[in-house]
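R.M. (postdoc): so does anyone remember the format we settled on? I'll just put the structure tokens first.
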């Protein structure tokens, strides 16, 4: 370590703190969105598959905008990417106001798409930004620490969704709504959609404040490199190297199924609890809040454990445990099954940043586009809830959790793959005994 290292570290503290607010911000957005599947299903009287288009629009935007974000980061800087993402996210959140006035499901999906487009750019930029802020040796652990503030935002998002949205839903059932006069039904829907709009417009204001704070700071990690002109970005060669890297390629697949499993679990928690315990949306939402509290506590605990246990070993073990918990809750759709569902969030806590950090190891100048691929893998959050929604429509909420169970098995396989690759590397590096 040279003499400049402590000084550089001190200079990065305030930027690091500001970046952690971004991690919290997209946690708020994602977990205010999860209850919207059930909310829109009730307001617009739709099937589980139709209402799951909320997640398709949200996570589909992550897929579409990750690669453009990589171009922004490579040509300009991580800071430019962060500011661009925050700006788009604020615009999307503000669009909830005209959507609530139009009372059209498609307008809400468009607003969600723009919001998530901004968050995709933000996440593609912020994650490798944190990795570039310090030594390579503890990059995965540093990213886990920064990501630990994401569940802080997740808990705030669930709280806002439960207190400001779910509690404002009219208790009228789909049959009762169908029997209402058009004017009466329209008045109820208008009040419910206004409740959806308020927390999103408030979040837009917070995002704009974060944008101004970051814009005023000079931030450039010493390990970050940009190109002089967009024509100097050799996309074909970069993608070729990434596709030939089996470790990275499997990491993208694992991230797809990890995000798919996480989104399925949190999206359909309310529906499972309602079926298992015969309670209303607001009461079922409490268990989603418990899940996110456990997720928060476990994220900090796992960051500490990584100082003693290899990250890939924790990843594999917790993925197997999550699969077992899914099996238990399918077999026991009662209060014990509900608590098994809550416990899955503890297993989820370390998965995203750990897969992210492991997959980016050793990519060098390809890191910015590698990061884009891992964010594009968030498409799993768009696809897998549609699969689970179709299973719910055909077989019920309980059996549908076979979908995240299968996803967790893929993540477990990646953890074991990384452990095996590491053992081979150590064996190759060990001097031969003569």
């Amino acid at each position: 370590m040279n003499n400049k290292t402590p000084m550089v570290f001190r200079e990065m503290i305030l930027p690091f703190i500001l970046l952690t607010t971004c991690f919290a911000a997209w946690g708020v957005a994602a977990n205010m969105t999860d209850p919207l599947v059930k909310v829109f299903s009730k307001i617009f009287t739709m099937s589980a598959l139709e209402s799951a288009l909320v997640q398709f629009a949200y996570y589909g935007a992550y897929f579409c905008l990750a690669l453009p974000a990589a171009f922004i980061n490579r040509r300009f800087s991580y800071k430019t990417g962060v500011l661009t993402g925050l700006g788009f996210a604020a615009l999307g959140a503000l669009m909830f106001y005209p959507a609530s006035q139009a009372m059209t499901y498609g307008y809400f999906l468009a607003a969600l798409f723009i919001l998530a487009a901004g968050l995709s750019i933000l996440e593609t930029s912020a994650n490798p930004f944190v990795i570039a802020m310090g030594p390579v040796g503890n990059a995965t652990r540093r990213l886990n620490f920064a990501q630990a503030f994401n569940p802080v935002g997740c808990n705030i998002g669930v709280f806002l969704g439960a207190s400001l949205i779910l509690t404002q839903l009219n208790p009228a059932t789909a049959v009762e709504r169908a029997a209402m006069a058009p004017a009466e039904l329209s008045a109820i829907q208008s009040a419910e959609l206004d409740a959806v709009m308020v927390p999103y417009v408030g979040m837009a204001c917070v995002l704009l404040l974060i944008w101004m704070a970051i814009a005023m700071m000079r931030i450039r990690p010493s390990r970050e490199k940009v190109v002089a002109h967009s024509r100097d970005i050799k996309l074909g060669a970069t993608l070729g190297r990434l596709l030939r890297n089996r470790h990275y390629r499997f990491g993208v697949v694992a991230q797809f199924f990890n995000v798919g499993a996480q989104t399925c679990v949190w999206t359909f928690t309310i529906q499972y609890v309602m079926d298992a315990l015969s309670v209303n949306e607001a009461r079922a939402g409490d268990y989603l809040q418990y899940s996110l509290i456990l997720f928060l506590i476990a994220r900090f605990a796992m960051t500490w454990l990584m100082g003693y246990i290899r990250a890939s070993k924790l990843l594999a073990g917790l993925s197997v445990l999550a699969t077992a918990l899914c099996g238990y809750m399918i077999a026991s759709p009662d209060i014990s099954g509900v608590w098994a569902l809550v416990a899955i969030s503890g297993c989820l806590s370390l998965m995203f940043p750990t897969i992210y950090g492991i997959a980016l190891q050793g990519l060098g100048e390809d890191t910015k586009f590698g990061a884009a691929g891992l964010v594009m893998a968030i498409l799993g959050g768009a696809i897998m809830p549609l699969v689970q929604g179709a299973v719910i429509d055909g077989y019920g909420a309980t059996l549908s959790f076979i979908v995240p169970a299968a996803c967790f098995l893929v993540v477990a396989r990646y953890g074991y793959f990384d452990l095996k690759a590491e053992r081979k590397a150590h064996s190759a590096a060990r001097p031969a005994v003569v």
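R.M.: ...and that's the designed sequence above, right after the tokens. Also worth knowing: Confidence is low (pLDDT under 50) at residues 1-9, 226-232, 429-434. The radius of gyration is 22 Å.
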